[in-house]
Design brief:
By secondary structure, this protein is an all-alpha fold. 81% of the residues lie in helices and 0% in strands.
Length: 107
Amino acid sequence: MDELKRHVEIDALLSLYEPLLTDKQASIMRYYYRDNYTLSEIAELTGTSRNAVHDHIKKTEKKLREYERRLGLKKKSEERHRRIDELKDEISDKNLLELLEELKEVD
């Protein structure tokens, strides 16, 4: 998996499972994936070493993937969006189309 795809995947998982992380895990992952801080910048902000930040990110990525493996929220959301898009292709009623679009935004 290339770096950009991995980054997008982890950011999506973080959006879904962030409440399950510790405050420290969540903040480090936000710094890295959302704010695009370097490992050195995060280390300075958190008062840890660059290597510790790297290890922390790798462990948390693994934890996020495990949450997805067990709970499947990302997979279910993607499937729900796919099915809504299929329905939208079959419907011409504007009110129903608007409701379907709103339903997609519930995630």
